Amino acid sequence: MMKMKTLLIFALMFMTIGCTQQSREEIVEKIGRAKIKKIEKNVNARIEKMVKGMLKYPESYQPINTEMSIVTNNMIIYDSDAFIALRDLNNTIENFNENYANDTTTQAARQELEAIQAMSGVLLDKMITINNRPVEFEAIGAYHQFYAEDRPGHQVKKGYHFVIHKDNRITLLCDHDEFLSVVAFTKKLFGEPPATLHEI
Q: Are the CB atoms for 128 and 149 separated by under 8 Å?
């Protein structure tokens, strides 16, 4: 009888542990939310300093807002190597279509096609690596929008995408136009956005 009671207690304990165990995604979400809360007070000041350093007329800078999101290690867009591979492949394909159209017979066109094939292979290898990673918290993505002058008296709305790393470094990923171009190309490449593509 005592053995039965002990077994029942252990069974209940394991059931309780099983029910309260969090998935990897839930853990990532919790870590990400905590990171956003920790950095949100000073992130705008840090980004402002970086942005002003890139502007032709820094005195015209007027912040609008900063949207922050959790980045996991399997988000293609935020993996700098994959981002560069996607951007370069997109540009090369656009240049090929512009310069050669349906020409695949000339030596120059064939060389360009070989370059596209090689770039596609590099991208595929990178994506296989990304897709095989167990999901983990990687960084915080910050999309910062602001007004600034591109010439005296002419104000424009701009946006930059930054990555705030685990060690609190902030790096510039790209401007918003380039980001949208790479996102659109990635969606076109896969038909539907893959699960690892951060939705905007």
A: no
